[in-house]
Amino acid sequence: xxxxxxxxxxxxxxxxxxxxxxxxxxxxxxxxxxxxxxxxxxxxxxxxxxxxxxxxxxxxxxxxxxxxxxxxxxxxxxxxxxxxxxxxxxxxxxxxxxxxxxxxxxxxxxxxxxxxxxxxxxxxxxxxxxxxxxxxxxxxxxxxxxxxxxxxxxxxxxxxxxxxxxxxxxxxxxxxxxxxxxxxxxxxxxxxxxxxxxxxxxxxxxxxxxxxxxxxxxxxxxxxxxxxxxxxxxxxxxxxxxxxxxxxxxxxxxxxxxxxxxxxxxxxxxxxxxxxxxxxxxxxxxxxxxxxxxxxxxxxxxxxxxxxxxxxx
Amino acid sequence: xxxxxxxxxxxxxxxxxxxxxxxxxxxxxxxxxxxxxxxxxxxxxxxxxxxxxxxxxxxxxxxxxxxxxxxxxxxxxxxxxxxxxxxxxxxxxxxxxxxxxxxxxxxxxxxxxxxxxxxxxxxxxxxxxxxxxxxxxxxxxxxxxxxxxxxxxxxxxxxxxxxxxxxxxxxxxxxxxxxxxxxxxxxxxxxxxxxxxxxxxxxxxxxxxxxxxxxxxxxxxxxxxxxxxxxxxxxxxxxxxxxxxxxxxxxxxxxxxxxxxxxxxxxxxxxxxxxxxxxxxxxxxxxxxxxxxxxxxxxxxxxxxxxxxxxxxxxxxxxxxxxxxxxxxxxxxxxxxxxxxxxxxxxxxxxxxxxxxxxxxxxxxxxxxxxxxxxxxxxxxxxxxxxxxxxxxxxxxxxxxxxxxxxxxxxxxxxxxxxxxxxxxxxxxxxxxxxxxxxxxxxxxxxxxxxxxxxxxxxxxxxxxxxxxxxxxxxxxxxxxxxxxxxxxxxxxxxxxxxxxxxxxxxxxxxxxx
Lengths: 313, 514
Ligand code: HEM
Description:
The complex is a heterodimer of chains A (313) and B (514).
Chain A: H1 3-34, H2 40-48, H3 69-99, H4 107-128, H5 135-151, H6 167-197, H7 209-241, H8 250-268, H9 277-299
Chain B: H1 2-16, H2 18-32, H3 34-37, H4 45-64, H5 74-103, E1 118-124, H6 128-138, E2 143-148, E3 154-160, H7 163-188, E4 190-197, E5 201-204, E6 213-216, E7 228-239, E8 245-256, H8 258-262, E9 266-271, E10 276-278, E11 281-297, E12 303-306, E13 311-312, E14 320-326, H9 334-339, E15 341-349, E16 352-355, E17 358-361, E18 370-378, H10 395-399, E19 403-412, E20 416-418, E21 424-440, H11 444-463, E22 467-475, E23 481-489, H12 496-513
Antiparallel strand pairs in B: 1-23, 2-3, 3-22, 4-6, 4-21, 5-7, 7-8, 8-9, 10-11, 11-12, 11-21, 13-14, 14-15, 15-18, 16-17, 18-19, 20-21, 22-23
Bound molecules: protoporphyrin IX containing FE.
C-alpha cells in the first residue's frame, strides 16, 4: 500500500478513536451522574472478587451484585474505551508504517502515544480499583488533548530531521510519553481527591478519598521510575546529539522540576503532616508541570527541544 | 558555649528533618523554574541582552538577582548545597540504623493481633506446635523468630522486604554521587567551537587560540588540552522537498596519540548523533554553512581569491550574510593600502530566488547559488585597534567617510562585475564549511554509572514493601487451637492486602486438613 494511503488511514483511525472516547466519556459521566452513591467498602468488595480490601479473609461469603441501569452505561463506556484504545493503537502503527520510523517524531505523534498510555493505564487501574464511574474525568482531558493534537498540532507524516534519527528516539521519547501519560491518571485522581476531601455534598458520589489516594500512589509509583529512566535516556541522547548530557535547556529544566515535584510527592506521602491533601496538591502540581512542559516549552520558548514539527515549512 | 552547641545541634536537627528536606525540594523546583522561562546567558547571551534592553529597570533588576545565570547563581547553589547537607545528615543515621537492622530479629508478636491493619483468625484441630511448623514452612524466605508464651501459646514473627531499605540507600547515595560527579565535570571539563572549511580544512586541539569560542571549566586554563587533529575533507547534506534536512555528514580524518608522530590519518564519517570520540574528547558536527568564493582581479593583473565563511541568517533556507575582505596586492605603503582595501558584503543565497531585483534563498542546498553584494573600498579599520567581526564591515568607518560603497550588484555563479578603477570581481560559487564542537568531560561516565544506580535503587525501593506477619496459635477449649494472623506493612499499606490475604489463607486453611 502506498505510504500516503497508510497515512490517511492512520488519520481516520485517530479521528474515530477521538469520537469513540468522546462517547465513552459521555456514558461514564451518565453513570457517575445517575448512580446512587455507593459505599466504597461495598464497591471494593465487588471489585476484589470476594476479598475485602483490608485483607480480612472471610470464607464462604458470596455476593451477587445487582447491575443497575447506570452501571450498564458505565460498562458500555468501558467497552467503548477498549475499542477506542484499539483504534488509537492502530492509528499509531499505521503512522509508523507510513513514515517507516517510530511513530513519535513530532508533537502530534507523541501526544497520541501519551494519551494512549493514559487510556491503557486507566483501563488497567479501573479493573484493580472500584473507580470505573470516574472514567469520564479521565477521558475528558484525553479527548481535549487528542482534539488539540489532531487539529492545532497536526503534522503530516514525514521523516524526521537528522538530530532525531537515532534509536534513542525510540527509547527516550516513548518512555517519557508513556510515563507522562500514566501520570495523567494520578493527576486526575489527586484533583478528585481534593474535591472529595473538601467535604462538600456535591462531591459525595465520588469514591472514598482513601481509594483515590491509593490509586494516585500506585500509578505514580509505577510511572516515576519510568519517568526517571526517560530523563536519563534523554541525557544519554543529548550527549550524542547536542554535545553535553545536561545543559539546562528549557525542556530539561522543566523535566527536572517535575521530577523533583514527584519526588517531593513520594516523600510527602511518607511524612507526618504532609499526607492526604498536601500530597494530593503536590501530585496535581506535578501533572500541571508535565502538561506545561509539553505545550508551553514546545510552542512558546525556543530551545534545542524544538522538534515539535508545528508550523514547519 | 553551651548555647552555641545547642544552637548548632538544633540547626542540624532542623536541617536534617524530613520537613526541611521537603521544603528544600520545593525551593529547588521553584528556583530552577526561572531558568526555563527567562533567557539564560549560558544558552543564548544575545537574547539576554535583548531582554534586558526591552525591560528597562525590571530587566536590570533581574540581572542583579542573577536571574539570567540561574544555575550558577548564589541562591540556586545555596538551595542545592543545603539539600545536599540535609541529605547527608539524613543518610548517615539511616545507614547506621541499616547495618544494625541487618542482624536484628523481627519484633515480638504483639499481644493483640486484632488491632493490626490486616487480621484473620480461624480454629483448627492441629496442635499449636504443628501450626507453627506449618507456618515456618509457608513463610520460607521471611526472616522469622518463634517464641513460646505461657499456657502453651506459640507464636511466630516474620518480616521481609529488607531490600527496600537497601534500594532506598542505594538511591540516595547514588544521588549524592551523581551530584558530585556532575560538579567535578563542570570544573574539569571544557567546550569549544570552531568553523572549518570542508575542502581539507584542518583543526588541531593544540591550544585555546585555535577555537572561535572556548568555554573552560573552573579548573581548566587551556594549556593542557588533549592532543588531536581533525581534517574535514567533504560535507554532504540531503534535504526533503520541503527544505527540511534529512541527513548531514562530514567526511573527516583524524589523528591522535601515536598517529600524531607517524602522521597517520584515520577516516571517520562525522554525523549528527555520532560524534567522534578520540583522545578523551568528543568532536561533534554542530552545523554547516557556505563560504562564497570571490576572485578579484586587480588593475595590475594580480588576482586574489577570498574564502571567508558567511553565516546563515535563515536556518531553513540557509540564506547567509558575511563580509569577504581583501588587501590590495603589492602595496607596501600602509597609508596607501589603507585607502584601497576592498570588502564584499551582502546576502548569499544557495538557491537563488529573485523577486524583481531582490534576492532571497528558496532552498538550503547549493543548487543555484547567487549573491547580492555591496562592494566597499577604502579603510576597513583593521588597524584601528577596534575588534573586527569577520562577518561584517566596520560601520564606523563608513560613517566617517573612510570606507565608501563603490558597487552594488546581483551575481550568479560565474558572473562578474567591474569597478570604476578596472578591478574585476567574479563570483565563482560556494564551498561548504562545518562548525565543530569539541567537548571534554572526564566525569561523565561516573554520572552515567550513578544514574543507573539511581534507577536500580529507585526500582527496588518502590517495588518492594517491608512487611510483617505474625501468627499466634493458642490452645482453645475442647482440644482445638485458635490461630490468629496479623499483618502490617511498614512503609505503605497500599498493595499489601492481596499478599496478606494469600498468606493468611495458606496459614489458616491448611490447618483444617491436618
Ligand atoms: C533530590 C532529592 C531527593 C529525591 C529525588 C528523593 C527521592 C526519594 C524517593 C523516590 C523515595 C521513595 C519514597 C517512598 O518510599 O515512597 C525516597 C525516600 C526517602 N527519602 Fe528521599 N529523595 C531526595 C532527598 C532526600 C533528602 C534530602 C532526605 C532527608 C533529609 C530524604 C529522605 C528520605 C527518606 C527518609 C525516605 C524514606 C521514606 C519512606 O519510604 O519511608 N530524601 N526519596
